[in-house]
Amino acid sequence: MTNTLIYAHRGSKGTHPENTLLAFEEAIRLGVDGIELDVHLTKDEQLVVIHDETVDRTTNGSGKVRDMTLEEIKKLDAGSWFSDEFSHATIPTLGEVLELLKDTDIRLNVEIKNDVVQYLNIEEVVLKELETYSYKDKSIISSFNHYTVKKVSQLDPEIETAILFMELLVEPWKYAKSIGASALHVYVPVAFADMSRKAQDSGYPVRVFTVNDEALMSQLMDLNIDTIMTDFPEKAMKIRDAK
Ligand code: G3P
Ligand code: CA
Question: What does the record list as coiled-coil region(s) (predicted)?
Answer without folding.
Answer: none
